[in-house]
Amino acid sequence: MHTITAARPITWRLPVVLLGISGLRLDRGTRYRPARLLLFTATAALYYLLTPVLTTPAVATAYATAVWLLYYGGLSLTLGGPGRTALIARFGEDRAYAVYEVALGLLFMNQSFAQAVVIYAYGDSLPAAIPSWAAYVIGAALMAAGTFAKVWAACTVGLDTYYCRDMFAGRPLKDADGLVVAGPYRYLRNPMYGAGNLHAYGWAVWSRSLEGLAFAAAFQLGIYLFYHFSERPFIERAYVRS
Hints:
The protein has 242 residues and is mainly α. 70% of the residues lie in helices and 3% in strands. It has helices at residues 14-22, 33-54, 57-80, 82-91, 93-121, 132-157, 159-162, 165-169, 198-206, 210-240; strands at 5-7, 176-179.
């Protein structure tokens, strides 16, 4: 996930970062790369096949709600509960992290697709008083700003931090310098959680989806709850007080 703690800032190649924040990591070795690619491709194909069903309003709402619960509930239970220690005890830290990051990558994919199907299912629900040109202009501006902020932040902290590797290990990474103050972190405390989520609002505005705006807010609230109850206590314990 996106955390304000990190190892020494690293600039990744843009395509690797874009795929990484979408759920597919190609920066971690080659042994499991074919399996990761196959899983990513198969999941995307399954989304495509199920789109006619998932984009009906009732199913889209249920699917997005389930993803919200699995994403933030599962993340909190794994990183802040017994899930992490159980995985490490079963597989060892390196293999356990590999399992965790694949599962988290799938949740990243589902989070994006869940918001997409809600927006599609509930398109054109904004008040008619808002002209289409305004929705397109505002939506495009928000999508551009949010995507730029998220990619910039991910390039600054690296994908290991994006996937909360330090929290999974329960300690700072080996080359950690503490809190990041470079890139967008010079201006914002949580650029991924704040500005980085503007793209979801922009997509909803572009599609004139009132329900899409509501789910974008719900997913942003979920990540801030995770930060408040799980991530910030870890940051203070591992980086601030150490």
